[in-house]
Write a structure and sequence with these properties.
The protein is mostly helical. The protein is built from three helices and no strands. Helix 2 crosses helix 3. It is elongated and about 30 Å long.
Length: 48
């Protein structure tokens, strides 16, 4: 899924790319992310 998002990000507006990059950054944090952040990031990426 993350690979597909990286491909699709080139087709998004700069504003959407910024939010997308935040979501990917949250996933990179893994266990260090705040509670619920990974779930929200995955929900956003799933909506892409």
């Amino acid at each position: 899924m993350v690979r597909a998002v990286h491909v699709l990000r080139t087709r998004m507006s700069p504003e959407d790319r910024e939010v997308l990059d935040e979501a990917l950054g949250t996933l990179d944090e893994g266990d260090r992310a705040e509670p619920g952040a990974v779930r929200r990031a995955l929900a956003f990426l799933g909506a892409v």
